[in-house]
Write a structure and sequence with these properties.
Elements (H helix, E strand, L loop, with lengths): L7 E5 L2 H4 L22 H5 L22 H15 L3 E5 L2 H4 L10 H16 L3 E7 L5 H7 L6 H16 L6 E5 L9 H5 L9 H26 L4 E8 L2 E3 L4 H23 L4 H10 L7 H9 L4 E6 L3 E3 L23 E2 L5 E2 L1 H15 L3 E5 L17 H19 L5 E7 L19 E3 L11 E3 L1 H11 L6
Parallel strand pairs: 1-2, 1-12, 2-3, 3-4, 4-5, 5-7, 6-8, 7-11, 11-12
Antiparallel strand pairs: 9-10, 13-14
Helix pairs in contact: 7-9, 9-12, 13-14
Keywords: Glycosidase, Hydrolase
InterPro entries: GH, GH_1_N_CS, Glyco_hydro_1, Glyco_hydro_1_AS
Organism: Clostridium sartagoforme
Length: about 475
């Protein structure tokens, strides 16, 4: 049995975490550029603290990142050496429309990605392209309040028209919004939302989410019109939430947490707002502006496949005493006593990946694509820059075995697997370089010092072997 013959093995990055070149090639400023490393990062990401430009007190890791804007040819060559069948990358919106509301795109930006995709194709690598991976042009944030404005749908439509037409025949697989549910947890990073005093935050978040959902349906429609072969997917930050105990209240709490997560995908995959979400909005007094046209668009333009990131599972309890939250991701969760955790407090649960795959497949019956999974760890290179990252190999091996079980034993339809941060890059959550995911070590530290030299880690040759054997040789 095993994985399908055309299984898409590869790795994933995001423009704002690897490109750098923030002011080159006619690119405009974006929300992702002005998020610093350090104690202010989280309040800014969460839309609680305003940072709309650079200042002298902070360090902004995305400005240079790992300079992939200039090194993509060398980096893609390394991906090809590993045998990648696909490379998930994203488009920086402000490279194509520097301000976001122009009528015509920036040719230099369009050309840059065209070269990047052609470079992939040269090695037989299928680009898997995220249209917006947390990017929002700063001008749209300052002028329109970002995704809280319905006008954003039209600006996003322009972006889609420009890229689908330009890259027709070069790109088959598209994702509309990265981790669309992140708008609830990190609204500035996820959607350029910065709250004003006294604003109803829930109302703002769900209205902005609605605009993104409509924009996503519109993207799907345009893609299919431009090229019927294009496949458009949605993308969520996944990971099942388990009840902390078998107490029915805990089971209900876990169900509610899972629903909060799947709400967006319910709309993108089924074409309408689920009853539980409408009821909850009613209870919270959230009134969303949904037009008849919106409903029609959502209904008729559901996604072709569902992609997601998986790093860990979570736990939920209805008992306020138990709710002493753990570290970790933007999603806080209870510590699961049955699991080990990474150096950043993320709980390691390979079986949870199989469970999550089954949950999503049962729910939607559409092909699935794991587009992020990996271990963020402190890698210590030897004097030659070589990293012996057996811990990463072990982590990935266990997760690949779990997804193999989901395919072989459970019958899940899985299109592919791209590990997160196939080359070391800036962490979205913390802004650190120290938290590394890659098969390729990049010489750069949290302060932006280092030569940016690329070195293959032990996991590089291991993953090459995995791909060559279609997941048989682990």
């Amino acid at each position: 049995m095993g994985f399908r013959e055309d299984f898409l093995w590869g790795g994933a990055t995001a423009a704002n975490q690897c490109e750098g070149g923030y002011n080159e090639g006619g690119r405009g400023l974006a929300n992702v550029d002005v998020v610093p490393i350090g104690k202010d990062r989280f309040p800014i990401i969460a839309g609680e603290m305003k940072m709309f430009d650079f200042d002298d007190e902070h360090f902004y890791p995305a400005k240079e990142a790992i300079n992939m804007y200039h090194t993509f040819k060398e980096d893609i060559k390394l991906f090809a050496e590993m045998g990648f069948k696909t490379y998930r990358c994203s488009i920086a919106w402000s490279r194509i429309f520097p301000k976001g509301d122009e009528d015509t795109p920036n040719e230099e930006g369009l050309k840059y990605y065209e070269e990047l995709f052609k470079e992939c194709k040269k090695y037989g690598i299928e680009p898997l392209v995220t249209i917006t991976h947390f990017d929002c042009p700063m001008h749209l944030i300052k002028t329109y309040g970002a995704w809280r404005s319905r006008k954003m749908i039209g600006f996003y439509e322009n972006l889609c028209n420009a890229i689908f037409n330009r890259y027709k025949g070069l790109v088959k697989y598209w994702l509309t919004f990265n981790e669309i549910n992140m708008i609830l947890h990190a609204p500035f990073m996820g959607a350029g939302i910065c709250f004003e005093d006294g604003e109803n935050k829930e109302q703002v978040k769900y209205q902005a989410a609605h605009h993104e959902l409509v924009a996503s349906a519109l993207a799907t429609k345009i893609a299919h019109e431009v090229d019927p072969d294009m496949m458009v997917g949605c993308m969520l930050a996944a990971g099942d939430t388990y009840p902390y105990t078998c107490k029915p209240e805990d089971v209900l709490e876990a169900m509610n947490k899972n629903r909060e997560n799947y709400f967006f995908i319910d709309v993108q995959s089924r074409g309408k707002y689920p009853a539980y979400a409408l009821k909850e909005m009613e209870r919270k007094g959230i009134k969303i502006d949904i037009t008849e046209d919106d409903k029609e668009l959502l209904k008729n333009n559901t996604v072709d496949f569902i992609s997601f990131s998986y790093y860990s599972s979570r736990c939920a309890s209805a008992d306020p005493e138990v709710n002493k939250l753990t570290e970790g991701n933007v999603f806080a969760s209870l510590k699961n006593p049955h699991l080990k955790a990474s150096e950043w407090g993320w709980q390691i649960d390979p079986l949870g990946l199989r469970i999550t795959l089954n949950t999503i497949y049962d729910r939607y019956q559409k092909p699935l694509f794991i587009v992020e999974n990996g271990l963020g760890a402190v890698d210590v290179p030897d004097e030659n820059g070589y990293v012996e990252d057996d811990y990463r190999i072990q982590y990935l091996k266990e997760h690949i075995l779990a997804m193999k079980d989901a395919v072989d034993l459970d019958g899940v339809d899985l299109l592919g697997y791209t590990t997160w941060g196939c080359i070391d890059l800036v962490s979205a959550g913390t802004g650190e370089m120290k938290k590394r995911y890659g098969f390729i070590y990049v010489d750069r530290d949290n302060e932006g010092k280092g030569t940016l030299k690329r070195t293959k880690k032990k996991s590089f040759d291991w993953y090459k072997k995995v791909i060559a054997s279609n997941g048989e040789d682990l």
